[in-house]
Design brief:
Quinone Oxidoreductase, Chain A, domain 1; seven-stranded mixed β-sheet; alpha/beta; 9 helices; 2 domains; 27% helix
Length: 309
């Protein structure tokens, strides 16, 4: 089967031929239809987690997946042909979704793709969407709260903007003038502020007393913390947590994505209902994943899709 792999840290991802896997007890073989690029994939390539997680080369990249059940192992109730999506979650980084087939365990990181959820969309929903859910749960925005989202034009940020706006919060999103501003306001942001300018002045003009909550997906967390009113909240997906925020008059939470079944089902239902849009931008084929890496590094709006089927 085709798979996009690396054989060492720092290597350029390459399309290779590998053996088709087989499911064991409690496992599912998925025929992958679509995936998407996440910052996690870039971190794997450059060895960011090499001292924290076990890696086994060659590594097939790709965390998000959407496709159909090809085969099931003993103890799995799903039927061949069922539509599924989710996030690869394994103790060793080795198998990924930038491939024709993927084996995943039943029970966590996988759920049914309901009617009305396009598989291309589902392939860009799991990891960024579940991270966004965790972020919004951490800051718990109430109706009328002002929430600052730094990194709003990325995949996680695009979902955070929508979920926070849906809660009734007034969202301030970082975005450059032009296409980025149009993107975030189209997702429900009430204001866009240019992070390449004087961010403090722009935010204070909108919220003179500070914002109720801030989301750190990009930028300087200390600067963002300084824009939160005393007693407010800050959530970060980039490792800024209570230890780093010691002494600050706010509640700080470091968030990791948790793509459990309930979270994935909730995201799927929101997309089907039309309350959440999947922010798919450019889509690349398996033979163009190296280009997708370059595009991600250069900065893109929304999610980068990976078409497999």
């Amino acid at each position: 089967m085709r798979a996009v792999t690396i054989d060492s840290f720092g290597a350029t991802p390459a399309l290779t031929e590998t053996a088709k896997p087989a499911p064991g007890p409690g496992e599912i073989l998925v025929r992958v239809h679509a995936s998407s690029f996440n910052g996690f994939d870039g971190a794997v390539v450059f060895g960011v987690f090499k001292d924290m997680l076990e890696h086994k080369f060659p590594i097939t990249l790709g965390q998000d997946f959407a496709g159909t059940v090809e085969e099931v192992g003993e103890g799995v109730d799903r039927a061949v042909g069922d539509r599924v999506f989710g996030v690869v979650r394994k103790p060793v980084i080795s198998d990924g979704a930038f491939a024709d087939y993927l084996v995943v365990a039943e029970g966590y990181g996988i759920t049914a793709a309901p009617a009305g959820l396009d598989l291309d969309q589902a392939g860009a929903l799991g990891l960024a969407g579940s991270a966004a859910v965790g972020v919004v749960e951490a800051i718990a925005p109430a109706a009328g709260d002002t929430v600052l989202v730094s990194g709003a034009t990325g995949g996680v940020g695009a979902y955070v903007v929508q979920l926070a706006a849906a809660s009734g919060a007034r969202v301030i999103a970082t975005a450059k003038p032009g296409a980025e501003t149009e993107f975030v306001t189209g997702l429900g942001a009430a204001h866009a502020v240019d992070h390449t300018g004087d961010l403090d002045a722009q935010v204070r003009e909108i919220a003179p007393e500070g914002v109720a909550a801030a989301v750190h997906l990009a930028g300087d967390p200390a600067q963002l913390a300084g824009l939160v009113a005393a007693g407010g909240r800050l959530a970060s997906t980039l490792g800024f947590g209570p230890e780093q925020a010691e002494g600050l008059p706010l509640t700080v939470t470091s968030v990791l994505a948790n793509p459990d079944t309930a979270t994935l089902d909730g995201l799927a239902a929101a997309v089907v209902a039309g309350t959440v849009k999947v922010p798919l931008g450019a889509t690349y084929g398996l033979d163009s994943v190296a280009e997708a890496f370059g595009a991600f590094g250069a900065g893109t709006i929304g999610k980068i899709g990976i078409s497999v089927a």
